[in-house]
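INTERNAL AUDIT FORM
Audit reference: QA-55
Scope: verify that the stored structure record matches its stored sequence.
Auditor: D.O.
Record contents follow.
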Amino acid sequence: MQESKSFLNVLLIEDIQEKANALINALDTSIYCIKHVSNSGVSLLHQVEKLKPDLIIIDIESPNRDILDSLHLLSSSNPKPIVMFSPEKDTATINQLVKSGVSAYVAGGVDPQRVKSIIDTALARFQEYQSLKNELAMTKEKLSGQKTVEQAKLWLMEAKKLSEQEAYQCIRKTAMDNSQKMEDVAKNILSLAKMIGS
């Protein structure tokens, strides 16, 4: 995830020390370094805030409401790749976990031989998802900006009796003269239009 690092800081949520040790040993020679082990009773959000992990592994019997809520909040405010191991096989719960930001869900026990490849896949999936999410946000922003420019252009055409090309050039020139984005100039024009009630 962060290529400048030689390892990734992993937070493990595990209640059984023996299983935690098995996971630590399974990842011993990989780039995934389990630096902290917490139990499921500790606030996940608090742990993430305090320890700033690059990746989270959760191995629990059954995801409770607190875990689901925490994952949902993390996904929207501070997304991280999350791998979950749990015997829970209920499809609705699994769907809810994936919607809440779990990058990989493995129903069943932790197989030390497969752990690294599961995490590799989860990390790749997380990066791809974040990339698509950022692209979508940029596209939405661009479309929103274009819509604002269109509205300002229409107002100039009506209020100043300009042609479409003249209205566009007016916004473009003002943006260049003031080192602003066309969208910002358009917003100012629309604010002015609102003020004068036209």
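Auditor finding: record pair retrieved intact. The chain has two domains: 8-110, 136-195.
Action required: none
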